[in-house]
């Protein structure tokens, strides 16, 4: 049994990672801004959910102290613009890994598992991917001070994701879907496979100073994924690909929405195929999207008529 600090442990991927590590008997500390957002994690006996500001150096030092390892899963998809990347990307993807590194060094902790992104490169077309690459470089430059493993997943799917579920919802509410970057390529990986990989990294010293691409067994275009989500949820719709100019305008308009679904930087990220020929690490056999996703997307279709009744009732 060891004590592990999981930063970003209340998000979609993080909650699955925490649950998987708890199965191994680890004592886990999970910081969050709002404790009530982690209601499911509170039920796990070896998990301590703590309200804390991870961007405060003194607080981060206190969280790291006494731990045997740290897992950093923090990531943001949107930021104010900047060069080479915006301030929100810089804070979450570059400054935070540096703070974590410094806190680990002061506490005498060497083991770190860090979540990056497939396609991260210094010269990538998007600020998101450039900032993820800069975060990796922080750890590479500190190899003598930290025993880090970097994970680079493609898009991650699962029952509570904001990827396939979003497409299923859009298919339900719109008769036709107009899609930018419809030919963008992804190799979706199941969230449980990602969580399993994190657990194996913690247990396997051979993963130190290594970088793993995490991808499922099949490559899909964005158009194929949107059409699949619609069909699996019981709401198949025509999907029309937009030209680059119209896609850019659509993303620009969506940036003004209260909740961003898409940004121009997201479009630039999708210019880089999110695929890899590397095999899945640790001998894990990744789950097939079309074999697993219909189980929860289909259940949403079966329940959709209840949503109609609630809507008429004003609920």
How do the helices and strands line up, and which of them pair or pack?
Layout (H helix, E strand, L loop, with lengths): L2 E5 L4 H12 L3 E6 L14 E5 L5 H8 L4 E4 L14 H21 L3 E5 L11 H14 L6 E7 L2 E2 L6 H10 L3 E3 L5 E2 L2 E2 H13 L7 E4 L5 E2 H11 L6 E3 L2 H11 L9 H6 L19 H4 L1 H19 L3
Parallel strand pairs: 1-2, 1-4, 2-3, 4-5, 5-6, 6-11, 7-10, 8-13
Antiparallel strand pairs: 9-12
What does this protein look like?
The chain has 315 residues and is of the alpha/beta class. The protein has a domain at 3-156 and 188-214: NAD(P)-binding Rossmann-like Domain (Rossmann fold, 3-Layer(aba) Sandwich). It is built from 11 helices and 13 strands. The strands form 4 sheets. Strands 3-2-1-4-5-6-11 form a 7-stranded parallel sheet, with helices on both faces. α3 runs parallel beside α4. The longest helix is centred in the first third of the chain and has 21 residues, at 87-107.
């Amino acid at each position: 049994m060891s004590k592990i600090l999981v930063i970003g442990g209340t998000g979609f991927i993080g909650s699955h990672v925490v649950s998987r590590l708890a199965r191994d008997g680890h004592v886990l500390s999970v910081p969050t801004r709002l404790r009530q957002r982690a209601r499911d994690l509170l039920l796990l006996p070896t998990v301590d959910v703590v309200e804390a500001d991870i961007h405060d150096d003194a607080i981060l030092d206190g969280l790291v102290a006494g731990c045997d390892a740290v897992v950093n899963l923090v990531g943001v998809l949107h930021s104010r613009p900047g060069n080479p990347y915006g301030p929100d990307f810089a804070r979450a993807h570059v400054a935070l890994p540096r703070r974590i590194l410094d806190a680990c060094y002061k506490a005498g902790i060497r083991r770190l598992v860090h979540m990056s992104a497939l396609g991260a490169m210094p010269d990538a077309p998007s600020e998101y991917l450039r900032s993820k690459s800069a975060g990796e470089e922080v750890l590479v430059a500190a190899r003598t001070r930290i025993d880090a493993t970097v994970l680079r997943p493609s898009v991650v799917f699962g029952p509570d994701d904001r990827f396939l579920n979003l497409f299923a919802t859009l298919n339900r509410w719109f008769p036709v879907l107009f899609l930018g970057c419809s030919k963008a390529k992804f190799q979706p990986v199941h969230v449980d496979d990602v969580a399993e990989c994190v657990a194996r990294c913690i247990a396997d010293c051979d993963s130190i100073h290594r970088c793993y691409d995490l991808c499922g067994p099949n490559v899909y275009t964005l158009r194929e994924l949107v059409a699949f989500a619609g069909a699996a949820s019981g709401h198949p719709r025509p999907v029309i690909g937009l030209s680059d100019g119209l896609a850019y305008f659509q993303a620009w308009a969506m940036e003004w929405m209260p909740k961003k679904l898409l940004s121009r930087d997201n479009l630039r990220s999708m210019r880089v195929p999110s695929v890899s020929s590397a095999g899945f690490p640790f001998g894990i056999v990744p789950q097939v999207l079309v074999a697993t996703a219909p189980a929860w997307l289909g259940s949403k279709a079966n329940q959709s008529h209840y949503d109609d009744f609630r809507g008429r009732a004003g609920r």
